[in-house]
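Sequence design from tokenized structure. All designs in this work follow the same two-part layout: the structure record, then the generated sequence. An example of the structure record is given first.
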């Protein structure tokens, strides 16, 4: 199966940008950790403009219309937590929380750096510091994984080809895909 990193198309003219997402108490939930979230998150708009069907916040949290969330959910099943999102002046948007984390980064085909003990963050020694060319090993991905993050590099949000096609078939505006297999 083919897999794709899911991005936000930042080149759409006059598009909006969603800033920070917080819980009711002002805490910023770690939507990139693979953990479920309980609560009712609130988002701010950092740049007003045309709302998109899919976008990433300033901190790479995926936000989509209910229609896009349903399309992804029909493929991803329990790997996707759909969380209604409150955005002042806008209705029908959800946080797409990936609940699965898969160890699948193919170091032999990827380009990356790791933290070392000599860096200013010696506590992170051995962990990925940056990944400039991401490739995953499809053989390491369970066949039922369609919406997930990568163990060790949680910044990346990965979708399977069936999830990508589901988004494209409904005309999802705002999503970009880059193959990583």
């Amino acid at each position: 199966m083919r897999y794709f990193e899911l991005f936000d198309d930042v080149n759409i003219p006059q598009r909006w940008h969603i800033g920070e997402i917080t819980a009711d108490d002002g805490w910023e939930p770690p939507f990139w950790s693979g953990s479920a979230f309980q609560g009712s998150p609130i988002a701010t708009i950092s740049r007003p403009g045309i709302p998109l069907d899919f976008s990433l916040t300033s901190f790479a949290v995926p936000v989509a219309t209910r229609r896009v969330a349903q399309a992804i959910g029909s493929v991803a099943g329990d790997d996707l937590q759909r969380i209604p999102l409150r955005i002042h002046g806008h209705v029908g948007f959800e946080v797409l929380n990936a609940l699965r984390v898969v160890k699948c980064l193919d170091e032999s085909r990827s380009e990356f750096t790791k933290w070392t003990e000599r860096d200013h963050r010696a506590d992170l020694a051995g962990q990925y510091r940056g990944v400039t060319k991401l490739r995953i090993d499809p053989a390491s991905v369970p066949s039922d994984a369609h919406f997930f993050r990568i163990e060790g590099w949680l910044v990346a949000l990965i979708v399977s080809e069936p999830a990508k096609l589901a988004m494209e078939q409904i005309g999802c505006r705002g999503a970009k895909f880059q193959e990583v297999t």
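Residues 66-76 form the longest helix (11 residues). We note this feature because it recurs in several other targets discussed in the main text.
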